[in-house]
Amino acid sequence: MHLTDQARATLKGLKQSTPDSANARELGSVYWTALSQGIAECVRAKSDLSAYLESERDFVDFGLVPEVVGNCADIGNKILEKPATPPYCTILLFSDWLSQVCAKILQGDKRELLEKEIAVHYQQIERLESESRDLQRQRRDGIVQELEKNTPSFKPADARIHLENMDQLDALLRQNLKFKKAVSKGMFFSVPEKRAYCERENAIASLRSKADDVLNAIPPKERTVIKGYSTQISDNLGRIIDYEDSVEKMKKECAELEKKKEAISPVEIEARIVKEIDYLRDLLKLAAKRLHLESCPFARESDKSLTLQELASCLDRILEFDPRIFHNDRVAIFGKPSVLLVPGNGNSLYDWKNNVIIVPTLPPSGNRMASVACGAIEYRLDTDEDKNLLTSYNKLPQHESVKSIFHLRTELTKDYIVWMTSEYKGYKNLSREARKWFEHEIAPGKNDIYIPPQLQPFVISTEEFAALLDGCESRLAGGTTFALEEDLWTASILNYQLGKFEHSVEILKALVAKNPSNQKALYNLGFICMKLMHKQEAIRSFQEYAKLNPQSWWTGVVMDNIRRLQAG
What we know:
Layout: H1 5-16, H2 21-45, H3 49-55, H4 57-62, H5 72-79, E1 91-93, H6 94-107, H7 109-150, H8 156-184, H9 191-215, H10 220-260, H11 266-289, H12 308-321, H13 329-334, E2 338-345, E3 349-351, E4 356-362, H14 368-383, H15 388-393, H16 405-423, H17 432-441, H18 462-476, H19 485-497, H20 501-514, H21 519-531, H22 535-548, H23 553-566
Parallel strand pairs: 1-2, 2-4
Antiparallel strand pairs: 3-4
């Protein structure tokens, strides 16, 4: 990284003493100016940006420079040590984010928006297809049921032919609706294509006549319901075709943007990259300003920078103690937020523009959990578009008179941090009313087993569920002796969700036999045994859990269950 002599002198001053506000502002200017200039030189020279960011990793990602820290590489490698299990959210380093920004600029912002819109359209198409399949099933069941009831000479074979005709009618309607919409937009068709359209129209008329003949044997009221299914299916087909046409149009636009990206000048690329860097710099300044600090990206040897392992651990706790954090409509469109680790000081915050939780590398007072929790609750509130959380929080006795939304958000953020730090560890620092509110609105359910985030019902589809269960069960078919703990854990959750409680207990017992210190397995085993009225087994599992984890919110739930079981 190219630094001026004045910049180096400023950095040496940081090594000797804690910077005051003026020095911190100067240090911030040194970092962001050097970063922008280095990337701009890469763009102008059309050199490999990834190679440049890799060579300057310690400076770019962690704010480590030899003028301040003697062992930059060692500290950087310690920060980069990966967690034992991959985090549920994607964690990005600053260099990763910069590479993505450059790629996005080269492809064009509009292309990214188009791709998101295409994804939304595909979701709508799948929803309408699924709805149409359900309507066809209901129509099929209704026709068979009414024909059996009202036709003395009813034959299943005749009904099957009629149902096949109805399905064929839907397929022909879809083809001709697409043809008509294309003609209305001025599309030209050849004579054979027009002739095929006319043939399909004749077939549709014939099939409709046959359908009417059969439906006439059904009472008017039921006939109207069945015809209503057909009308809704036809409407859905029209909407599906509209979405498909829009997708094709947007795909063509994406292809055109791909051709145009080569024409973007280096000057324009440089200006847009610098603009994005400045945008992130201002967010880091805001994170520090909220705590009445000056943003300083550089770390000293005495500073405890947030590592990837620590960040992943904080995210795991948030997902464990706020399991519905990603249960919102925005995830279906934009996906889960990424977590971006950036050199700076202050608490984390949420950037809605890029759908990313920004986490400074230097948490205030070294309180890593509090810093990450700030960004989590900000994301929670931003995605709560109906303001349900704030509305219910405002009803607590201590907040009923609060009219300021800003003040309410501030109080909720403070309580959320207490929830994720003190309350998680079993210390009751919230008021009784606030604790009840968190246990109702935020906490995992006390009346259910612990379910990891990737297996939550709102995350996994029916098809994914079936495939995952089949895979686990096939690997467990040979016995549990050599089975992987991961397969046992997943199979126990999925079988519980299917209502196969006894089988889930058997699998959890095998898992606990393999790993007696698996706290979550003991918790779930105790809960399911309690549900099955296996009183002594439930108490035994809960007691083993309490021995391993004597102080936490979960332990409080366990002790309540033990008291309830012992009291009969």
